[in-house]
Design brief:
Elements (H helix, E strand, L loop, with lengths): L2 E5 L2 E4 L4 E8 L7 E7 L6 E6 L6 E3 L7 E6 L4 E6 L8 E8 L12 E2 L3 E6 L1
Parallel strand pairs: 2-11
Antiparallel strand pairs: 1-3, 3-8, 4-5, 4-9, 5-6, 7-8, 9-10, 9-11
Length: 123
């Protein structure tokens, strides 16, 4: 069993930056693919970014490519999402998730989810 806790959300002006963290406990994080998803009010949860267990492969949604960077530190059991050039449309609750079968953009492949952290970008 893996427990995930997100942190780092908050209120930021458009053009600003935030770094989200996803800390894992319960089991070693190193063998899992990890993804970030987000859900805005009235919208479905959508894929943001994912990283393979060995940090060699990353993928991003087109809407965040070039602005967001996913990384991980397996020694610290933590995955990060650096978000730059934030836009009001990035406002959402951000969730991290871990997958035993590796990274991917489909929420269905993820076994463990955090409780989410709110990101609000003002215009």
């Amino acid at each position: 069993q893996v427990q995930l806790v997100e942190s780092g959300g908050g209120l930021v002006q458009a053009g600003g930056s935030l770094r989200l963290s996803c800390a894992a406990s319960g089991r070693t994080f190193s063998g899992y693919g990890v993804g970030w998803f987000r859900q805005a009010p009235g919208k479905e949860r959508e894929f943001v970014a994912a990283i393979s267990w060995n940090d060699l492969i990353t993928s991003y949604a087109d809407s965040v490519k070039g602005r967001f960077t996913i990384s991980r530190d397996n020694a610290k059991n933590t995955v990060y999402l650096q978000m730059n050039s934030l836009k009001p449309e990035d406002t959402a609750v951000y969730y991290c998730a871990a997958s035993v079968v590796g990274r991917g953009s489909s929420a269905d492949r993820y076994n463990y989810w955090g409780q989410g952290t709110q990101v609000t970008v003002s215009s």
